[in-house]
């Protein structure tokens, strides 16, 4: 670190990196967006130029220049690179899901723990002010016995993420599933098991969760429905009635700034644990894997119904 500023390297130069990561990192007073590396150098150069950063010619070069790495790449790519970054002693901002499968997520979480570095997962809903107030009210009131969530969108049908290969390959469970599972878990208590999962050929998921305290919850997910704007809502119910939360569709930038505030503070104090750290990512990965085993993998033949012929 240079003084009190954390030098961060950004890996990836796609839509999410351009709209959230780069402006958030470059605009944060405790962070210097030092360098960008991406598979397509021209994309990295364009992004870096717009935010006063350098461009690295390799991931190894990026690691030599930074204290921390922010990832905006698919999970299968992120997991291997983040493993190397952790071994090099770099702090991590990870996308969700943190890896393509449980064994890889376990390997990454183990590397982070062994290195003693700080990690945060981009569970943006958890860093939103309205979400934190909602969760605080639920914790103070108690008595919640059930809940449900809906996340329905047409993200794969059009827009800036419709050309994302990994989203087409893995579907809603991997893309929005981590947000939904994480928030139900935070609202009602740790999820102990996936009690049921059903997935249609159009990648519409219906999930049932059993929580450690006896509560149950359900979720419906899709990113391949002609729904505009996105429906993303959460609710719980119990002895004190009903509490609902709707996602703020424009809240990603503010949530990322809040995440970065905490990231800088964690590094400054040498803190390596957080409710949304890599181990949270591993917990979610295990639940998603269980749902996948019950509901069926997203197969190539199914993608024809989403992508077209």
Secondary-structure topology with pairs:
Blueprint: E1 6-11, H1 15-27, E2 31-37, H2 41-50, E3 54-55, H3 59-65, E4 68-71, H4 75-87, E5 91-94, H5 102-115, E6 119-121, H6 129-141, E7 144-152, H7 165-175, H8 177-188, E8 191-199, E9 205-211, E10 216-222, E11 231-238, E12 241-246, H9 252-269, H10 278-295, H11 300-307
Parallel strand pairs: 1-2, 1-4, 2-3, 4-5, 5-6, 7-10
Antiparallel strand pairs: 7-11, 8-9, 9-10, 11-12
Helix pairs in contact: 1-9, 4-5, 5-10, 8-10
Describe this structure in words.
- The protein has 309 residues and is α/β, with parallel strands linked by helices.
- The chain folds into two domains: 6-124 and 253-277, NAD(P)-binding Rossmann-like Domain (Rossmann fold, 3-Layer(aba) Sandwich), CATH 3.40.50.720; 125-247 and 286-307, Dihydrodipicolinate Reductase, domain 2 (2-Layer Sandwich).
- It is 44% helix and 23% strand.
- α5 links the parallel β5 and β6.
- It is globular.
Quick overview:
With 309 residues, this protein is of the alpha/beta class.
Spell out the key features of this protein.
309 residues, 23% strand, Rossmann fold, 6-stranded parallel beta sheet, 11 helices, 6-stranded mixed beta sheet, alpha/beta
Please list the strands of the largest sheet in the order they lie side by side.
3-2-1-4-5-6
Structural class, judged by helices and strands? Answer: alpha/beta
CATH topology of the largest domain: Dihydrodipicolinate Reductase, domain 2
Low-confidence stretches: 300-309
Q: What number of structural domains do the residues give?
A: 2
The N- to C-terminal Cα distance equals: 51 Å
Order of helices and strands: EHEHEHEHEHEHEHHEEEEEHHH
Q: What's the helix count?
A: 11
